[in-house]
Amino acid sequence: xxxxxxxxxxxxxxxxxxxxxxxxxxxxxxxxxxxxxxxxxxxxxxxxxxxxxxxxxxxxxxxxxxxxxxxxxxxxxxxxxxxxxxxxxxxxxxxxxxxxxxxxxxxxxxxxxxxxxxxxxxxxxxxxxxxxxxxxxxxxxxxxxxxxxxxxxxxxxxxxxxxxxxxxxxxxxxxxxxxxxxxxxxxxxxxxxxxxxxxxxxxxxxxxxxxxxxxxxxxxxxxxxxxxxxxxxxxxxxxxxxxxxxxxxxxxxxxxxxxx
Length: 260
Hints:
Helix content: 10-25%
Order of helices and strands: HEEEEEEEEEEEEEEEEEEEEEEHEEH
Number of domains: 2
CATH superfamily of the largest domain: Hexapeptide repeat proteins
Shape: globular
Structural class: alpha/beta
CATH class of the largest domain: Mainly Beta
Strand order of the largest sheet: 1-4-7-10-15-18-21
Distance between the termini: 88 Å
């Protein structure tokens, strides 16, 4: 139910939008009442340009149609533009009936003229243009770029991600193959990971560590030599604290070890 309500709202919005465009482009803009353009699609029509939308054309959100100068763009009935498509014309783009565009299809009938000065045509916005013709029932895959001078015959299928320029006969499948290169990551050193860390630990290697952190952050010394009996009530052999090395007794903080 929501689908039909949303569709009816888009039709009503499109009709209002088309009427406004018609006020500014009386001769240059042609449409039918059943063409549906998303509110998030853009139509930019120059003063001397012309745009014709056939019956049942659908244009999804994020798509853009820009017709510059005296250019002409026509889209046949029941054609469909998915999200993010762009059509930019400086001369002529003709799209037939029942054409399906996947997401992010780009159609340009112009290139920047690098021979122009200054800045290789960019500064003066000079272009080289050639018309584009796309036949009926053509299916164009996602992320395809169609360049100036391209002619695509009826019932063709364009593989996703293609860059198309030239003339193609009807009933063709166009796929631009690419090689996939796979490179293996460098091998890890043997014994890496947690096992290597454990094997490199001083205690695991059979060596005594001079300092080990205790449970409460206190520092304790690992047994190196048993402390021999010392006079004056010092630490005795066999004392509960006999794990403390003689060196540890000398450097331990004050109050770290109590007398026996």
